Amino acid sequence: MEYPGNLFVIAAPSGAGKSTLVKALLELDAHLMVSVSHTTRAPRGQELNGREYHFIGEPAFRAKIAAGDFFEWAEVHGNLYGTSRAAIEDRIAGGQDVVLEIDWQGALQIKRLFPQAVLIFILPPSWDELAQRLNRRGEDEPAVIAQRLANARIEVSKARHFDYVIINALFETALFDLKTVVHSQRLKYVSQQRNRSAVFAALDLIPSD
Ligand SMILES: Nc1ncnc2c1ncn2[C@@H]1O[C@H](COP(=O)(O)OP(=O)(O)OP(=O)(O)O)[C@@H](O)[C@H]1O
Ligand SMILES: Nc1nc2c(ncn2[C@@H]2O[C@H](COP(=O)(O)O)[C@@H](O)[C@H]2O)c(=O)[nH]1
């Protein structure tokens, strides 16, 4: 049996730290790749088209919806965001582990389409700390931050639909927890192999750090 790539879907309220965690995870794990979404949101200070997002206008986004180009899409904080179908289906079929950093609506769409997906929800340690992180990040206008904090109340209530919840209080602890979820998913695959050579082939997929 060829190794089918895993799909890890990570959601969190804005400012909880998911992008920072995913970036750190990717630096530690060469088997993982992150899918770059499309959005109608304007780029923030250091963001580059094609790196953080593919930044497109709403008409182009709507044309992609009509063409069936998105695996999932949703309106989040007043902007449209979507995961390109081509970006993930081929990679997973080719045995690559893919991470999606998307909101809860997209995550639940993915779980319906692809029940093997592993859904991970990142929580901040408190509402106060969430607000402080958004303010310290200094990338969004006060009105945008207020909207994101209001939406966070709804988003957090969706955590119960996820397979795992990780609390991002101390960064290194949360990163360890995230690595453990990814690692366990791969170990599950190894343990399902029927013969010894398949077990050793499967073990090659697991980083030994
Ligand atoms: N454990 C942590 N302790 C303190 N600060 C943190 C921690 N994790 C992340 N941060 C900081 O919090 C801010 C928000 O993190 P990040 O941008 O990763 O959030 P996000 O969940 O991806 O938000 P968004 O959905 O808006 O992109 C950043 O300035 C980041 O450096
Ligand atoms: N459903 C989707 N949600 C997405 C996607 N890409 C990002 N997101 C989520 O949007 C919010 C806001 O992101 P920001 O970069 O503007 O702070 C956040 O929850 C992201 O995870 C996507 O392709 N689909």
From TrEMBL:
SMART domains: GuKc. It catalyses: GMP + ATP = GDP + ADP. Keywords: ATP-binding, Cytoplasm, Kinase, Nucleotide-binding, Transferase. One of its GO terms (cellular component) is cytosol. It holds the Pfam family Guanylate_kin. InterPro entries: GK/Ca_channel_bsu, Guanylate_kin-like_dom, Guanylate_kinase, Guanylate_kinase_CS, P-loop_NTPase. ATP binds at A12, P13, S14, G15, A16, G17, K18, S19. PROSITE patterns: GUANYLATE_KINASE_1, GUANYLATE_KINASE_2. It is found in: Cytoplasm. GO terms for molecular function: ATP binding; GMP kinase activity. Its main location: cytoplasm. Its EC number is 2.7.4.8. NCBIfam families: guanyl_kin. Essential for recycling GMP and indirectly, cGMP. This is Guanylate kinase. It comes from Piscinibacter sakaiensis.
